[in-house]
Amino acid sequence: MKDTLRIVLFIALSLVVMLGWETWMRQQTSVAPTPTAQVGTQGETAAIDLPPVIRETPATVTEPGGAILAPSPEGQKVIVETDLLRVVFDTVGGDPREVFLKAYPVAIGQPDNPYHSVTAEEARLLLPQSGFRGDSGDSPDHRALYQVEQTEYRLPTGEDQLAVVFSWRGDSGLEVDKIYRFTRGKYQIALSYELRNGGQTLWRGRPYSQFQATHRGASPGIFQPASFNGGAYFSPETKFKKIKFEDMASASFPERMSSGWFSLIEHYFLVGWIPSVGSDIKLYSRELSENRHLFGGYHPILELAAGEIGQFHSVLYVGPKANAILKETAPGLALAVDYGMLTFLSQPLFKLLNWIHKLVGNWGWSIILVTMLIKLVFFRLSATSYRSMANMRKLQPRLVALRERYGDDKQKLNQAMMEMYKTEKVNPLGGCLPVLVQIPVFIALYWVLLESVELRQAPFMFWLKDLSIADPFFVLPLLMGVSMFVQQRLNPAPVDPMQQKVMSVLPFVFTVFFAFFPAGLVLYWVVNNVLSIAQQWYITKKVESSSRPG
Predict the structure, then answer these.
(1) Which residue, 47, 155, 151, is CA-closest to 90?
(2) Both 506 and 414 in a single domain?
(3) E-strand spans in 106-202?
(4) Is the same domain home to 301 and 367?
(5) Residue 395's domain spans which residues?
(6) Strands (DSSP E) along 198-277, which ranges?
(7) How many CB atoms lie within 10 A of CB 290?
């Protein structure tokens, strides 16, 4: 029985350690820091330095409704409304300064307060910027002053496309149109540069796209949900990589990426640049101040002879980390939904959850049905385990007698116990196997419920208004603790009184532990426990009745 207790305690600690390890790994994962090399592509004789960066803190202006805007002193605000987005541009740079996700309110019950993804507010700065860095003269970079025909645009009812054109004319004769194209029902914003060299000499410039951002807060501890917050990139050569903000000062990147994307990701949302296929990317990063960072990518130099026309295309994605949307946006972008080490389990679990949700229309019921299916998969394994535990219960009186006979002689007691197990063909550790097998499933489902924006603010019933956060009234954790206590009563009790005390504390410990978990995960565990109790009770009664004299 001492070995059995150790295994049960190991199972309990495994949950804590594995979740803690996952959290720690997410906090530690980054690109190995080495000095950043001078940027340049093969065959180029002249390297163009990094794009200029705005080092000063932008002044903030409070707009009606509490939105924080930060137009440059000489710039003009341009507002664009679509069915999904509200975007505020600045004519300085022609870049977004604010993006509101209209389908994702900040909190339940606040439909008119959409989530603020892109923002110039210094405390949670996130600015996508793009432009061209020329090798001489003025350049259409993210500090150039653009002109625009009007200051407000709205996607017309019944139409699917909206184009907004920012125009710039350089002293050397270069003419640039920076065109944003919005599509109904899409979070992708297509960006096209159309350039015409109206001067008399060759013009050379390198296109770039980048982010300026501050860290939006540290990851919570072990007992609270923790999700990666920082940079990420993907290409066919590198696959999916992440980089922490604190490593951007000295991070190294691949020499080139033939295609792909780079982004800043947070818990449920993503802002990413997706250059057109075939645009080689050279990534770079900098630390601009103690908590202000730069992360971006260069592209091959564009050369325009006098009178020549050139183009450059990319896509800016500002939206949720929703699997279906990310998959159709760009290859590999769905990997930004980071399930950690058990992705191979989490991905099919999410697909199953999502498929069931399409049938029942409620994420809570989807979790319950998935739990039942998982239980069905492990049914035979659990039955064998519960039968072993029921046989152990039958041996309890004899185990107590052995302890009284041998007293403190541990060696003889253990030898006698093992002989009894062998004679009765009982495996004292058999009852631990199904729980051990379910731990990876539990951890995988934990990250599914934590990372999936589809479950953000998803209600179940009654007081459960959001399955992605902890139960506000702790009802589910209490039910989980009660169900765990009932399960213990069905299990063979430890012979040692001290071990009994330790086991009796576990339901309380797990109740406190689960009080910080997302309600959806606790719902899974409660339903799993109830199904386990029903199965174990039936098997125990069956084993006990078969051993009674007829």
Answers:
(1) 151
(2) yes
(3) 114-118, 126-134, 147-148, 152-154, 161-169, 174-183, 188-197
(4) no
(5) 2-18+348-547
(6) 203-213, 230-235, 239-243, 261-265, 269-275
(7) 8
* Strand duo 203-213 + 239-243: pairing: unpaired
Which residue numbers in the chain have pLDDT < 70?
1-73, 217-226, 388, 391-393, 396, 424-435, 492-497, 499-500, 544, 546-550
Domain harbouring 192, CATH code: 2.70.98.90
| Distance separating alpha carbons of residues 114 and 270, to the nearest angstrom | 15
Domain count, the chain: 2
- Contact criterion met (CB below 8 Å) for 461 and 40: no
455 and 307 in a common domain: no
Q: Which of 441, 463, 467, 464 is nearest to 453 (CA)?
A: 467
CA distance linking residue 307 with residue 198, whole number of Å: 5
How many residues comprise the chain? 550
d(CA 498, CA 501): 5
Asked if residue 126 lies in contact with residue 271, where contact means CB atoms within 8 angstroms, the answer is yes
Residue 497: predicted pLDDT: 64
For residue 87, give the nearest of 113, 104, 69, 72 by alpha carbon: 69
**Other CB atoms within 10 Å distance of the CB of residue 365:** 16
- Among 17, 45, 35, CA closest to 285: 35
Residue whose C-alpha is closest to residue 264's, from 235, 218, 238, 232: 232
Rounded CA-CA distance 374/369 in Å is: 9
* Cα distance between residue 205 and residue 141, in whole Å: 10
- Contact predicate 389/431, CB 8 Å: yes
pLDDT of 232 reads 95
Give the span between the Cα atoms of 529 and 521, in whole angstroms: 12
For β-strands 203-213 and 302-304, DSSP reports them as antiparallel
pLDDT at 113: 93
Q: Which of 176, 172, 95 is nearest to 135 (CA)?
A: 172
Q: Which residues make Cβ contacts (< 8 Å) with residue 108, sequence separation at least 6? A: 457, 465, 466
Distance between CA atoms of residues 469 and 227, nearest Å: 13
Can you tell me which residue has the tokens 């998803």? 458
CB 183 within 8 A of CB 270: no
Q: Which of 126, 121, 118 is nearest to 88 (CA)?
A: 118
Assess if residue 235 is contained within a domain: no
364 shares a domain with 310: no
Name, in order, each residue with C-beta under 8 angstroms of 177's C-beta and a sequence gap of 6 or more. Answer: 165, 166, 167, 168, 192, 193, 194
Same domain, 102 and 178: yes
User: What H or E segment, with its residue span, contains residue 309?
Assistant: strand 309-320
> For the chain, percent helix, then strand, then coil, each to nearest 5?
40, 25, 35
